Structures
1.
Amino acid sequence: MENNILQLITILIPGLPLLGFILHYIFNDKISEKISGMHATLWVFLAFILSCTVFYSIGDKGQIQTHLFSWINTGDLNIPMAFIIDQLSSIMMLLITGVGSLIHIYSIGYMHGDKGFNRFFAYLNLFIFFMLLLVMADNYVLMFVGWEGVGLCSWLLIGFWYQNQEYNKAANKAFIMNRIGDLAMIIAMFLIFNQFGTLIIQDVISEATVPGSLHIHLGGITLLLFIAATGKSAQIPLFTWLPDAMAGPTPVSALIHAATMVTAGIYLIIRNNVLFSMTPDTMTVIMVTGIVTAIFAGSIAVKQNDIKKILAYSTVSQLGLMFFALGLGAYAAAFFHLITHAFFKALLFLGAGSIIHGLHGEQDIRKMGGLHRYMKTTHWVYFIGLLAIMAVPPFSGFFSKDGILIAAYHKSPLLWGLGLASGMLTVFYMMRSYLLVFHGDSRVEKDTMKHIHESPPVMTVPLILLSVLALLGGIINLPHIFHGNTWLQHYLTPILTEGSIHADIALEYILMGISVSAVALVSYFAYRIYIVKGAVPSENNETQGFLSQLLSSRYYVDEIYQAVIVQPFYKISAFFYNILDLKIIDGAVNGLGKLSFFISGHAKETQNGNISYYLFAMALGMGGILFLFLLF
Amino acid sequence: MNELINLKDQLRIIPLEHYVFLCIILFSIGVMGVLLRRNMIIVFLSIELMLNSINLLAVTFSVYHNDASGQAFVFFVMVVAAAEVAVGLAMLVLIFRNIKSVDINALNHLKW
């Protein structure tokens, strides 16, 4: 295809959702729900089609560069408004617009009748725009614009039902915790500019790989970029915002807090994988953080009773697994898991949304049960998502998780064991949520029971499409032992630095066998507990043992942050307010006022209207002047 | 011409210091009158007294120094004083019409 046509297309891809947002903004009150939802979806879907053409042409061109205009040009700093589309960003664009359009369609059904329907779609379009900007950016600054933009949209959408003060708090929490990561990203950009003299990603990477060059700040740069990623991708220590972010509407949780925005951190690291590969210490930090987060969040999910909270902690855990893979240097495996996770987690979230929709807002799995009789489609798609996330072959999750585990085994069997353990936690909590929701006796409240219904086709069709993706997504990176050709790995080769792992085929079979049998074992274990014994989580937490108390309270992380960071911060603020501001600064300002009152209060006495007094003062003054003349 | 010189000599019989002390006394009486009296007319008179004491001093020095410019100044001062008296008395009459008083402290409203 012609180069300039392609460049036009790359401008249109983020431009269309932006146009959608602007149109929504202008015609917010004037258009009906139907038109609003339709045209919002249309823009994203068109962007998807265009992304497909771009993806198709990347195959032979390698990359497309689009220079719009020179954005910031001052001194040595030269930042263009430019897009670069290579293998990595083209897949991300497909993912964002593809999953995005499905979730748009789903939202038409889910948000039906909501007061803020049009506003919701405006925000969704804006989010797609910023997310595309993030992955298409040619330089760190433009990427940062997208990075902040998705944070903004996340904030807007978490606090979408703004009448609820708790939701607003959750939105602010997400935004503020993200700011910590953003600060790290800004400092990383300063360091990059200081070190390399440019902020264009490709130039930085080619500069860094010049043989014999020494870059003293590189370790700091990568560590700061990783901290930025922990904020956006909800890793320890900045993960607590993501479970709270479930306050937003469920499609938002699926799109932003599972499939796309939270993977921005992973994208950032893969985008800069050359730099990361040069700093092994940072890689170790990433690996440890990743696996600790995966197990930590997975164990919390075991004891949660809110279906969306379970999925949220599951997301944190899966993202941790991706970081684990990144830390191992298995970038392709991490990216593969990112894609499959986007499919099956979006599916699970939307399935959960369908359940919540059918039960009129009920999110507590203790008040569900036996739902497979009432919601057949939802049950089946949720089941497929479940198998995918549990890594049952041949579902997509199996291949992606397996890739990570093999990379881990290649490094050390211990790491493989930890990875497997986090996978087993995933299996357990997902089985628990599935069995408690869809099987066993119905514990639905009577009032809700009367209105229970399957979701309309506008919601189930995207679910079915996503379940197909969750089922078949593994094909894109089928390993050699299944006669695949690891397409994704080859496709990404131009931008990755990793060497391919040559594991023994027999060993691979053994590892797969172990993980599959472990999945089966844990599933059976969960089945024993929740179906055969019919255990239902107790209503009150007081009767639990220490460990389960710890887990259901999420390791008291929020409380610890509250006590260690938030409360001291409030104390400091109170100190500054009461002492510094009220006493010293206000005291000084008011003191000046009082002083001038005092002085003028006395000085005005001289102007008393008494002519004799004035004359006397005049005579005195004259006398004084004469006296001075005599003196000098 | 001789008579004129005689007049000068006769004036010079009285020593200069006496004229100066007389002027100081007259001026001080004027100042005290302005500062201490409350009747506007008296204050006015006191001002005239001060002016005339200065006039006397100027004329004295004019005679003693053989310099006529002092006398020229005195004429100017007299003219100005006459004009001032005309305006001042007119104002005084108007003030009296308004407040039925010539007390200098009665008009003390123009203050903070």
2.
Amino acid sequence: MIAPLIVLALLCGAWELIVRAGVVNELLLPAPSDVARTLWEDRSILGPDLAVTSYEVVLGLAAALVVGVALAVAMHLVPAVEDALRPLVVGSQAVPIPVLAPLVVLLLGFGLAPKILIVALVCFFPIVVNVADGLRDTDPDARRVLASLHASRWQRLRLLEAPSALPSGFTGLKIAAAVAVIGAVLAEWAGSTSGLGHLVVTANAQLESARAFAATALLIFEAVVLYALFSALERRVVSWSPRTVS
Amino acid sequence: MQTEVEAPSTEPLRVQAGVTVSGVRKAYGDVVALDGVDLRAAAGEVVAVVGPSGCGKSTLLSIVCGLDAADAGTVDAPEASLMPQRDGLLPWLSALDNAALALRVGGASKAAARAAAHSHFVRFGLEGFEKTRPAALSGGMRQRVAFLRTLLAGRPLLCLDEPFGALDALTRAQAQTWLAEALARDPRTVLLVTHDVEEAVLLADRIVLLSPRPARVVSVLEVALPRPRVRTDAAVVQLRERALTALGLQP
């Protein structure tokens, strides 16, 4: 916990020096001290926008989790579904969101729905792939034991495959948490009236670069907090995994 | 799903059946694992299958357990439960829940399965470790949990695939003793795959010696020694020498 803070302090210190020395235009790159001051002074603007974006991110992640896990289980249980959908799932990840987002906004309007859809679209790939792989990579000896006991398909899923998939499922969720914020910002850029992504656009237009950077700092903070939350949850839920034993 | 199932091994199994394997052949692509293997175990007998590593012993057990199909030959065996080479314990379950797994799969309620498994914990030296997960158990304890799981499946035939292969010599000696005791209490037909000739002599009624791959039966030794057997006993040592000689490992 201390080490990343030291690295952060060093980076900010160097950044501060570069800006103070006048190497770059302050309109392009505000000093970290300006960003910090803006974070405090503009808190009444930043706060509500942070709440909006967080709401989009959490709902989008939840949607991706539900749809992603359901899809992974379906792909695992039915080979035809796996064959049919695996290339599409991979392909979905290659669709550039800036291309897709305006279309989604056009269809679903400026409300919450397009944001949730785009966040979910960005997040569901790491969840599907990691859960599907986790369901498949089970201990061969445990598989043989269950087979010799004539375990039903459902018992195999519940007793062996689902618990086996938990560690990699959490890996997928942590990756998703990091990219969810990007998805929310891109969705807001395509059309919105609030949120941190929206604030970045308007602040840039008004040459309020310190405010744009303050919003960005909050976005980064949000991704880190989500990641930390999922890591903590992982340690509780899969305490048996060698990865979480520390 | 609250089906109450009577714990199968609280009463000794009365229905026991023997195993007859004849002319079993199995190849994986061009690699012939088993090349006409014959084997017989009468009801309640312990038959050890001994052979060099990679000779297809595990394949033979898979076929007897019905996990794999033979290319040729016939297998006549009752319902079997398998104890795999590495224990195959589920790392997220406690020792008690791992031992009770077969009962859970058989449809017993969680409480009933746990109660049935727990009644064996003292005898297997697992008391106090009910809630411990496999990673925190010693190698010997893990094997006892895995054996208990296999026993509680309530099948007349136990297929043990190198059950003590991963244990150190001292722990293995203890494990062989408790296995002999457990089988004396609760007799089953047992196929014991091992590469340890001494283990076979200590535990088995008959030893089937296999050649290197492709596996064929080299020789069958009857072990007509009283139990409990002691590894330093002259008869045990003599039989071990005979087995090693038959395997071509001794001049």
3.
Amino acid sequence: MVAKFDLNDDSVVVIIGTGAGGGVLANELAQKGVKVVALEAGGRYLPEDYINDEWDSFGQLAWLDARTTSGSWRVHKDFATLPAWIVKAVGGTTTHWAGASIRFQDHEWKALTTYGAVEGANLLDWPIDSAEMAPWYEKAEEKLGVTRTGNRPGLPGNNNYLVFEKGAKALGYKEVHTGRMAIQSSDTTGNRISCQQTGFCFQGCKWGAKWSAAYTDIPEGEATGNLEVRERSHVARILHNEAGKVTGVEYFDKDGALQMQKARIVCVAGNSFESPRLLLNSASSMFPDGLANSSGMVGKNYMRHTTGSVYAIFDKPVRMWRGTTMAGIVQDEARHDPSRGFVGGYELETLSLGLPFMAAFLNPGGWGRGFTTALDHYENMAGMWIVGEDMPQLTNGVTLSETKDQHGLPVANVNFDDHPNDVAMRNHAYKQGIAMYEAVGATRAFPTPPYPSTHNLGTNRMSEKAKDGVVNKWGQTHDIANLFVSDGSQFTTGAAENPTLTIVALAIRQADHIASEMSAGNI
Amino acid sequence: MTRHDLRGLTRRQLLTRSLSAGALAVVGTGFIAAPDAAWAVEVTAITPEQMATLLQMARDIYPHDQVPDRFYAVAVKGYDSAEQKDFVAEGVTALDAAAKAAGFDSYVAAGWEEDRVKLLQSIETTPFFQTIRAGLVTGLYNQKEVWPIFGYQGESYSQGGYIERGFNDIDWL
């Protein structure tokens, strides 16, 4: 029984976005009996709709509405209108993510204290810590069915992993395994079908073996009768009253008509570009700099993880595309060890791209035989991805662009420059990744530049003090009690780990808080 | 994509009708064809010489010696349109001007890939070159028929994935 709420029903919680943050929050609130209207800009696609074809899938799922870029990052040069490779669909980027689900390390909640002040960086400690988050992480791991947690076995390693593992061990790395993945690894420990090693994890798992909100939390929430998901509904602005409390949202519905949905509480979960964009586009005479922006931090401190890839060619076939896309991890470099020339750490995780995307991303803009002789040996290629903590910087972030979208709304401009710490970390990781592959006999290696961002963090960051960030430790905005942020834009710092598990844990925790505050009549 | 099978024509007929013969393709009236007549591309908006230039550019930008011409022809066929006609004409004229300045009759007439690559480098920052190059990334590499040449297997769900088809079959480690 799917709920249907009236536009004038001001008792509902409106959630904007249905990904790892919004989708989970919607279900968790619905399970507690809270009435929820979730507004999702994208359409609804399920496993039967997903396509085992990189470009066709990209056309189906990716967020392709206008965005602009600036800054010295290479993405601005090569993919000027595509700062991120994320999804516009019910379930958000949980359809696209690889499934890596690892907890922050204890010290990463306290980056400023642990690393000390770093010149040019705007580091801050989170107002929460690992002890606070441990029970929520456990709930998140249960929800996602994370391998190597609970009684769930690890996934088997594919060809790409076996090369990676041998190289890692040759270098003396100890923390090498097939990852903690939100992918079903056995038929007896969860309710999803187990991984069939199909590849195409980024294109939506056609087996539903990987956790995605699209076919887990969203339908579970709808089944309670407390959740209505309105797809193809693009929120234009958040409205407020004279008391400075939010009262609802205006959105363009699937037919392009402007609608207004009243709300008791509004939760923004549109990812680190769209969430700050919406707060900025909601500026009013009372809040001329945008909603929840008394600190001036809305849109600032954007982080995208220090990424990059290493691909290498061997004299014999690897066929890296077979099986789980992110099939294993090396965690030895995730520690904080400034003797390496940078603060924070990074993970190395296997990655593969199909031939079409390899052509687009191996060396964007590259041509001639230097480029094509690499692709000639595609079958003999192995690949890994670097994901490390990058430095929050005031100048990195989202502002409103001169460009307008199909609804006439200013789009997000994403400005980014690497911090010297990011560059030092990436170069270290390139060196280690290449050494791993050379230890297995690679004949040629490629330090591949970062792709359009998939880990988008920090543009509405969490802070203890209102002057340092946008939201408090519950994701509640410092300025407006009934306005919350529920996605990765809350991140105070990025840590070295893939962010989804933390986004989910924060969403479960936030649902608990919102429900109890509603019961207490506080919001 | 329009591709005419010209197996009915003899090699001699094709050669007789050709206007010029580059390293890549034989150019006839309204079409260009492989020297062995295994394939041909009909052109309606741009000239056969212009299409031959685009084909040679495609081969020089993304040279894969094991990939037959017909895949490159498919990748650039879309430029044969009323909308692209002037864009192609201006770009080819500029490229040929660069070739003449370097002592060649035309870009296509430069026999060595190395020489042609230098000519392309001289126009690398132009919208013409950048458009052709960027278009090839999908135009060439997203042809499903090309994938087996690189060993890439494409779609796998309908075959049950690789769980029983070699996801971990590496035998040389």
4.
Amino acid sequence: MTYFFQNVINALQWGSFYALIALGYAMVYSILMLFNFAHGDIFMAGSYIGFGVATGLLYLVTSGFFSLPHWLILVLTIIISMFLTSFLGILVERIGYRPLRNAPRASAAITGLMIGIILETGNLALLGARRLGFPSLIMTKTYEMGGVFVTNKKILVVLVSLGLMLALDQFVRKTKWGMAMRAMSYDFVVVPLMGVSIDVIAPLTFAIGSALAAAGGVLYGIAYPVLDPYMGILIGWKAFVAAILGGRGSIMGAALAGFLLGFIEIFVTMIFPSTLRDLIAFSIVLVILTFRPYGFFGKPYSAKLRL
Amino acid sequence: MPLLQVKNMTHFFSGLRAVHNYNLVIEPGEIHGLIGPNGAGKTTIFNLITGVYTPTEGEILLEGKSIVGLQPHEIASRGLGRTFQNMRLWRHMTVLEHVKMAHYSKLTYGLVGAFFGTAKRYREEGEIEEHSMELLELLGVAQFADQNVLNLPYGVQRKVEMARALAVKPKILFLDEPTVGMTPEELVGMMEVFRTIHKEFGPAIFLIEHRMKVVMELCEQIQTLNFGEVIAEGTPEQIQRNPKVIEAYLGKEEVE
């Protein structure tokens, strides 16, 4: 039984990464009806930006410019990385997607793949092929509760992720920007009449999605402190699967499916050898999609209605 | 000065003449009807005036200023509101959100306010919500404020769309077949809504309509359109007696 709860904790942490990344896929899809295939690499970039911010702050502290407790450096790293990476998202929208807004969907999808490759190889050119170790900002503390071991890092990952998801939910439901995003996901004719421009809403959507991916990247760096330029590919694909599983364009669906995917993967390794993890986990996802082709919260309706 | 004036407007869709030499004068507060068989070009005229299409030829003046070539949202912000034949409601949003969304350009708080919840945001959202509720009450749909539009009866959805269009206090309201598909009871309710709107807000109304009962009771001036051309124009009585109108709707009588 303790073994079970141990895995629940692990699954929550693992699912947090998928959920944070999947949100970005879902948000962009709900507005532009396309998946931003560069999103996994934005996660990678966010992790590297977090590495840079954390290293810089640590350097300033050790050379005596100011003194900060390490937990505060961590908080600042998350916030600053989210802020900086959101501009990367805006840039991707502006350069990659806006010129192709009326182009065939396939061209726009390919744009995402290309931007992804550019980010990976750009990183490779800039920092070389070596792997980087994410600075350890907080000491790992392990708590034991009735035989279940929980580290402070796992608690941090799960709490920060949940907090960000709640904040996003409030933003989308309660603010004018969030309302505009939701309205635009249904209709492109009436919404602009109210003074809402797609040229504002689309970059904003990319910015928020990228900021969430960056938070995921920093948290990932803290939990698994090895960074390499291709770290975003597989996790990005899996988060993409989660976004589909949640229902195309459904924001909360993507978050829940991210956690579900984390649970499936962790619990598969509980029973089977870990080499079979993805094989079995994604077979399960395939079966789920067979019975729920629109995902959990997706609605079958035509994009043509919006125009 | 008329509120809206269209002079000699002609429009071609890649060689096909959709609208020919169309003229229109609407005075402030006037209710003007546009009728005609399916495919006559009524919605095209709406789309031309509201900026969805730019006319091939002709002039459109709103309060004396040309609006030809402006973007739909620019024309909307000058006081032209509209509803749509297929309503275009936002399926999974609530009634109140629809009306609040229409106030978007009046909300001035920025992203900081949105993320951190400044006092300005709460004050502005509060004011807008109050105004939206008043509007919904006026149209008699306030009790549905927190429901998804998708789950509501058709007549209620129509009123929600009307409230959304009215929220920006338009000087002129374009209504594209607002009673299409309504039951007789819903129709009576809708006509009551038209009268309420007109009394409370006093906008001019330009109405596309198929139901003669609605047009004849509400409109002061009616134009009949066929194949993109106005074939008759006048008061409801004049239109009803006009043989061209009867011909366009019922076909020519064969005289042997």
